[in-house]
């Protein structure tokens, strides 16, 4: 064996040896240079006053939004969550891929059970290729409305971002405000089958802004210096709304999205879906004065549905220096109206990955698995129309006509320990029947899904293409921001109407498609993504409208191990929040080569 090895090594070219040495040197450099950070998140109830009323709500470290996590690319963060609240909570690190470490991904009953009151749990958050802005949020009930914050990821030390160095930066988090206890409202609505509550207003960095009652003094203010350029990190943490955003009289240069770089585009406004993040450059080059930063909902439901949150949240960009402040800040004339789909599409159509030598794209070209997934609103029939949803029935939603049901123990533990009876491995690649998905007034039999805890299993390194198809079931079509945990993916195509598998693939962009972790599936349209299943684990897919998530527009992807320790799920940490198992028929050590044991 020694002779075989030495002969093989002698045949390797000098150049190949140099490449190997360089790779090993780079790996060792990164291993020694990557930093480890520690944070404590204390969850507790605190009173907050907005819109002239006060309520108690759960927050992290007594702040709303919560603390900012700052790292460099490739760092590791340990966050110990101390739950001093009244109910169980989990935390998700949105957009962080967590290579081989789904144990710290966070979605309730998918990768862990809740951190119960009076207990603590430490997350290990492993950064890899992400660079830019991501965010963290609660992933249990609707608690993320008050439990969320930004994640800032700087380039590796000694390197720079692919745009001129800004003079400073600002974080802007767009959120939702409910004057009542939103979890109680949602729990009652889910019990009765009714629609879930609309937010009472939107907020910018936790404040409604001075266009709304009792909000003038608390309006968020950002002071800038004339002539300086700022990197603005924008997070849409709203619960159920895509949002338009603009700053009066100032252009924005979009340079990043979802922890990836994009080709710079100059725009007067952006449209951002819940779950998404954007990095934009702003140069303070206007007359010394005050300028509104403003956001409002982009609504894609039927025109006759007008009960959405129509508030405009504002903050104020204020120039430093000596000048007379105006009676009222300038307003952004470029902010599109609530239902301006043309402006939304015009913005989205311009977004492309940077696709440079330093930040290349790697679009899978040898697809081994294709999926076509319908995204629908649905109903479950109630006896004698006794529920409070549409037609006296219960509102639900589905993917491929399957409305997901959370198990009572987490799927990751069940998969790792081969526990039976928790889920089934039969999430389908196709809808159960094909019809004109975008036709109005579809028949009753298209509106009723099946319920189940069905997952999709992928082999390691499969190259996957998924087309998400929006539908007009229940005449309830709208955009759907679909988020995938554990991965980013390339959006190779999108369009309106039913996907045509002969003509539409010819339009795919395989050169510089947008790389994101959350994609907006157009109202009555489709979006196609590609990714390589190279991150083993149990990963959640779901619509990032929380009302749709609560109704079952979710599924789980299990990516099997690759065959080496480096391509396998890591062993679980010594402590995970305990689950109550409904029943277990047998338990064995983890072996994902087993058949469909569930």
From TrEMBL:
Binds 4 Cu cations per monomer. One of its GO terms (cellular component) is apoplast. GO terms for biological process: lignin catabolic process. It comes from the Eukaryota. Pfam families: Cu-oxidase, Cu-oxidase_2, Cu-oxidase_3. Lignin degradation and detoxification of lignin-derived products. It is found in: Secreted, Extracellular space, Apoplast. Its cofactor is Cu cation. This is Laccase. It catalyses: 4 hydroquinone + O2 = 4 benzosemiquinone + 2 H2O. Gene3D superfamilies: Cupredoxins - blue copper proteins (2.60.40.420). NCBIfam families: laccase. Its EC number is 1.10.3.2. Belongs to the multicopper oxidase family. Keywords: Apoplast, Copper, Glycoprotein, Lignin degradation, Metal-binding, Oxidoreductase, Repeat, Secreted. Residues 44-155, 170-322, 430-561 form the Plastocyanin-like domain. GO terms for molecular function: copper ion binding; hydroquinone:oxygen oxidoreductase activity.
């Amino acid at each position: 064996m020694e002779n075989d090895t030495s002969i093989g090594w002698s045949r390797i070219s000098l150049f190949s040896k140099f490449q190997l040495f360089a790779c090993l040197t780079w790996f060792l450099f990164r291993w020694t240079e990557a930093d480890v950070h520690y944070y404590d998140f204390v969850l507790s109830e605190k009173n907050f006053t907005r819109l002239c009323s006060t309520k108690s709500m759960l927050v992290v470290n007594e702040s709303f939004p919560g603390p900012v996590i700052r790292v460099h690319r490739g760092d590791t963060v340990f966050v110990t969550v101390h739950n001093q609240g009244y109910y169980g909570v989990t935390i998700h690190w949105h957009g962080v891929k967590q290579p081989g470490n789904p144990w710290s991904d966070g979605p309730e009953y998918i990768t862990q059970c809740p951190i119960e009151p009076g207990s603590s749990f430490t997350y290990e958050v492993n950064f890899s290729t992400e660079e830019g802005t991501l965010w963290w949020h609660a992933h249990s009930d609707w608690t993320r409305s008050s439990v969320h914050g930004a994640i800032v990821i700087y380039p590796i030390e000694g390197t720079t971002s692919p745009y001129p160095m800004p003079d400073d930066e600002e974080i802007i988090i767009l959120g939702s405000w409910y004057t009542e206890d939103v979890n109680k409202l949602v729990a009652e609505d889910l019990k009765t089958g009714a629609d879930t509550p609309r937010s009472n207003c939107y907020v910018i960095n936790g404040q409604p802004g001075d266009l709304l009652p009792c909000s003038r003094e608390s309006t968020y203010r950002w002071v800038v210096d004339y002539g300086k350029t700022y990197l603005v990190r924008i997070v849409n943490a709203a619960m159920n709304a895509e949002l338009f955003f603009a700053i009066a009289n100032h252009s924005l240069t979009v340079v990043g999205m979802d922890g990836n770089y994009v080709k710079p585009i100059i725009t007067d406004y952006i449209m951002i879906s819940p779950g998404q993040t954007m990095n934009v450059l702003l140069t303070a080059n206007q007359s010394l004065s005050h300028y509104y930063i403003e956001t409002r909902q982009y609504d894609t439901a039927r025109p006759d549905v007008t009960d959405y949150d129509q508030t405009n949240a504002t903050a104020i960009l204020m120039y430093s220096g000596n000048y007379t402040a105006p009676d009222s800040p300038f307003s952004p004339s470029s902010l599109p109206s609530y239902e301006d789909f043309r402006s939304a599409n015009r913005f989205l159509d311009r977004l492309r990955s940077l696709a440079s030598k330093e930040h290349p794209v790697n679009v899978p070209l040898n697809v081994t698995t294709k999926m076509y997934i319908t995204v629908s609103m649905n109903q479950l029939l109630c006896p004698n129309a006794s529920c409070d949803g549409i037609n006296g029935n219960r509102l639900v939603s589905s993917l491929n006509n399957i409305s997901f049901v959370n198990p009572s123990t987490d799927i990751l533990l069940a998969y790792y320990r081969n526990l039976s009876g928790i889920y089934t491995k039969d999430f389908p690649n196709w809808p159960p029947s094909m019809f004109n998905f975008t036709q109005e007034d579809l028949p009753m039999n298209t509106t009723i899904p099946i319920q189940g805890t069905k997952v999709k299993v992928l082999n390691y390194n499969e190259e996957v293409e998924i087309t998400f198809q929006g539908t007009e079931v229940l005449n309830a079509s709208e955009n759907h921001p679909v988020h995938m945990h554990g991965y980013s993916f390339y959006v190779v195509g999108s369009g309106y109407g039913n996907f045509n598998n002969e003509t539409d693939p010819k339009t795919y962009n395989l050169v510089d498609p947008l790389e994101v972790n959350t994609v907006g599936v157009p109202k009555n349209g489709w979006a196609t993504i590609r990714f390589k299943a190279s991150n083993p684990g149990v990963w959640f897919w779901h619509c990032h409208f929380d009302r749709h998530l609560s109704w079952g527009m979710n599924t789980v992807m299990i990516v099997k191990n690759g065959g080496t320790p480096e391509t396998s799920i890591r062993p679980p940490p010594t402590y995970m929040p305990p689950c109550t198992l409904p029943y277990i028929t047998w338990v064995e050590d983890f072996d994902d080569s087993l058949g469909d044991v569930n």
